Amino acid sequence: MFPKTPPMGFNTWNTFADKIDEKLIRETADAMVETGLRDAGYEYLVIDDCWSERQRDPVTNKIIPDHVKFPNGMKAVSDYVHSRGLKFGMYSCIGTRTCADYPGSFDHEYLDAATFAEYGADFLKYDTCYKPAAAPSHLLYRRMSMALQATGRDILLSACNWGMDGVHDWIRSTGAGMFRSTGDIHDSYECYKQIFLSQLGNFAHNGAGCFNDIDMLTVGMYARGNAGLTGCTDIEYRTEFALWCMFASPLMIGCDVRNMNDFTRELLTNPRLIRINQDIECRPPFIAVHTEKDENNVYVRLLSDNEIAIMFTNLGDEEGIGTWLAFEDIGLPVSSGKALALTDVFTGEYAGTFREYKSERVKPHDCAFYIAKIVDAE
Known about the structure:
This protein is α/β, with parallel strands linked by helices. It folds into two domains: 8-277, Aldolase class I (TIM Barrel, Alpha-Beta Barrel); 286-376, Golgi alpha-mannosidase II (Immunoglobulin-like). 27% of the residues lie in helices and 22% in strands. It is built from eleven helices and 16 strands. The chain has helices spanning 13-16, 22-34, 37-40, 74-83, 109-119, 137-150, 167-174, 189-197, 234-247, 262-268, 271-277; strands at residues 8-11, 44-46, 87-93, 123-127, 156-160, 178-180, 211-213, 251-253, 286-289, 298-302, 307-314, 321-326, 338-344, 350-354, 357-362, 366-376. A hairpin with a 4-residue loop joins strand 10 and strand 11 (307-314). The longest helix is centred in the middle third of the chain and has 14 residues, at 137-150. It is elongated. The N and C termini lie far apart (48 Å).
């Protein structure tokens, strides 16, 4: 599948890990509809690891669903997800076993792809554990991509490679629609901060057809669940979501969407943030102001419709860092006779029209985020 904008959805792993079953998936599908997530663009509901029996079926050799967790089979689950206007995602691994020690797809790619298609899968997260050393990753991802295409069903391949083996150089050639380029995220400010900063050199490795996935969101977890760790403040969650949107990363929710508070729901469905993430031109951001440790950088991204996203950050701990952005440095010199009319991305409020420069004093772990329009200077 060739995604034109970053895929959006929900994945079970961050909160539930192995504690998944048919009831949870049905309730999650219902919640994605009732909370407005589906209508905001979150279309995939993905079951991660631990969904199958520990061994393949001795007669058919197929991977089969855990009969206790999914007593009605996976097709029934898929049908329910589809009935709610959502798409259904599953999980496997390029190795002999999955990361949680369930059957992997190594040397069973075409059988497993056909099985996932029978279940009605629209998405396959494909992990990297227990890979035979002699088998190159690029070949194994290409093999599953070809197997999925051979089913005749439109299934998005989400390669979960963790950024190993020089993945940025070859992943697009495999046919994957998105690829994990980082280690696992955990619910803490320092974790997501380091994940984002690790990708500053990879902005160009992202675009229509194959999106650089910097892992599932921890927004709204509040230290609960499998990846819970310390949790974050609401300001830190707001910054996390803003960074993911600015980077044009796939947006895969990891919190329990059945129990979101109002802040989490409103943040995840903010139409201006999603508009930046989903911009049809898929241009990468660039660093307009580069600072020590990259903690107070200013990121700019050219959007369609004569719009520009501008993000001032303070990823450090020092109070009230001031940052100054000269519009000359983003391509708007004074001689142009133009100015920028700014709208606050978080509130939707008009923030003023500025010529030559914009300065911000941002609090620790926070950001200031604007959508700008080029207008005639007065």
